[in-house]
Amino acid sequence: MDPLLIAIIVMVLLSGCVVLLSLHVLKEGHVMVIERLGGFYKIIEKPGSYFLFPMFDRAIEVVDIRQQTKRIEIKDEGNQFVESIDLLYTFQVVDPKLFVYASVNSVKTFENMVKDTWIKHRVLESDQIDELAEIASNLGIHLMEISIQ
User: What is d(CA 148, CA 25) in angstroms, rounded to the nearest whole number?
Assistant: First the structure.
């Protein structure tokens, strides 16, 4: 086979791979945080297909901005027995940029703060809930409800 033909086939295959890896589909209820050359560039909010320029643009994270409910299981090994509590919380991401850049995993960070607050106070009163809501807002999250199950 001719080396020029092989080179052309390889270039076409590589170009096809680059194009396929640069196409991103954004679903309803999600936003995509884009970096260009390593810094924040924009947030894409409309659902659809998007082409990001290879080596310039990068989709950092696709964030679900719909209302979500999550469960936290807290196991506290006290003095004599193991206490297990289930907490349900409802939240919505209101600032996708802050949500992505505030922590490597903002939801996990918030859940750890909830666990620490529960272990420290053993109750979730309005003061603790207000404190957790403030922590959540610093992570780009709006805490709608939190309850003990």
Answer: 37
Which domains does the chain show, CATH number per domain? 3-64 (no CATH), 68-148 (3.30.479.30)
pTM for this one?
0.82
Query: For 56-101, how does the pLDDT look when each residue is reduced to its tens digit (9 = 90+)?
Result: 999 999 999 999 999 998 876 665 656 778 889 999 999 999 999 9
- CA 128, CA 134: separation in Å to the nearest integer? 10
Identify whether the C-beta of residue 142 lies closer than 8 Å to the C-beta of residue 136: yes
Residue 120's SS3 state is helix
Strand partners, 12: none
C-alpha 63/C-alpha 60 separation (Å) is 10
User: Which residues, in sequence order, are CB contacts of 118 under 8 Å at separation 6+?
Assistant: 74, 76, 85, 87, 124
What is the DSSP track for 9-47?
HHHHHHHHHHHHHHEEEE-TTEEEEEEETTEEEEEE-S-
